[in-house]
Specification:
Largest sheet: 7 strands, parallel
Number of helices: 9
Radius of gyration: 19 Å
Strand content: 15-25%
Structural class: alpha/beta
Strand order of the largest sheet: 3-2-1-4-5-6-13
Length: about 325
């Protein structure tokens, strides 16, 4: 298939792009490189340095695209609280521009990078696709809004689409061409890369929030899914889309790990010891946040292959060592 990937220079988008090319698809990428990295771009893909808002210049009725995979979005929760207008403009307005172009071009397939962070619950029950959606921040609200927009578009046209609601994407991959693809945000807000920064001396300590949760060791439990497994679900969903239907799939490991387990595994993998400061619970942090991915298992035939926390962190550490700046 001929496919357009928006945000293909970012973390997950780049891994998916490389998998699409390996599977024999023709790929074009749109990315403004505001948070993505040019080094993530595969030579075999055609790259357009542009905002997703201008996608109609590429996704035209004569371009012949068979599908779109949409990753272009702002993703930092704290930033979305400080600057919600940026998230409305990037995530909602950008997605609206894409949906208009898809309708004009009669593109038949769309895979959307959504999030499991829009769910709410009792803090102990795993989340399936029927869990209550109640976004707690503007970032999650934009993703939920775009899910609704896509559902409406599928109901009005022959578009076949899937929203993939990720939990905690993690790990890294090394492509056959020797390109390391992994997490690097500025500022970093995700647990594993923050711990790796502490292990490498880029942070002088790590802060652990909350030790009195009703879990095995008192710290929060989270679901970490390897980015290679996450990417493979996109290829399966692309093949499974059906005209006029919008499906939602949760993507997670299904087995949560406590923050303390992640901390201990980082120390084991890196061989580094570093100071750990403890503070009380952060407001709004549930005790447990784990995905049920049974729908993806049954309907897509998707099963994660990298379930071990040591493997996830080892891959992330290899990436971190490969890309971090050399000491001055």
């Amino acid at each position: 298939m001929k496919l357009l990937v928006t945000g293909g220079a970012g973390y997950i988008g780049s891994v998916v792009t490389h998998q699409l090319l390996t599977a024999g698809h023709e790929v074009e990428i749109i990315d403004d490189l505001s948070t993505g990295h040019a080094t993530n771009l595969p030579a075999a893909a055609t790259f357009h340095h542009m905002r997703v808002h201008d996608v109609a210049d590429i996704l035209t009725p004569t371009a012949g695209f068979d599908g779109v995979l949409h990753f272009a979005a702002s993703i930092e929760v704290a930033e979305s609280v400080r600057d919600p207008e940026k998230y409305w403009a990037n995530n909602i307005e950008g997605s609206l521009a894409l949906l208009r172009a898809i309708r004009t071009a009669a593109t038949p397939r769309l895979i959307f990078s959504s999030t499991g962070s829009m769910y709410t619950g009792d803090g102990t029950t795993v989340f399936d696709e029927t869990a209550e959606v109640r976004p707690a921040n503007p970032y999650a609200a934009t993703k939920a809004t775009v899910d609704h927009l896509i559902a409406g578009e599928c109901g009005a046209t022959n578009l076949g689409a899937a929203s993939l609601r990720y939990f905690n994407a993690s790990g890294a991959v090394l492509t056959p061409e020797g390109t390391h693809l992994g997490e690097r945000h500025d500022p970093e807000s995700h647990l594993i890369p923050i711990l790796l920064q502490a292990a490498s001396g880029e942070r002088d300590h790590f802060t652990l929030y909350g030790e009195d949760y009703p879990t095995s060791d008192g710290t929060c439990v989270r679901d970490y899914i390897h980015v290679a497994d996450l990417a493979s679900a996109h290829l399966l969903a692309l093949q499974a889309t059906r005209p006029g239907r919008h499906e939602i799939y949760n993507l997670g490991n299904g087995n949560g790990f406590t923050n303390r387990q992640v901390l201990d595994t980082v120390r084991e993998v890196t061989g580094a010891d570093f100071p750990v400061h403890t503070q009380g619970r952060r407001p709004g942090d549930p005790a447990i946040c784990i995905a049920s991915s049974e729908k993806a298992h049954h309907e897509l035939g998707w099963k994660p292959q990298h379930l071990d926390l040591t493997t996830i962190i080892s891959d992330a550490w290899e990436f971190h060592q490969a890309v971090r700046p050399a000491p001055a």
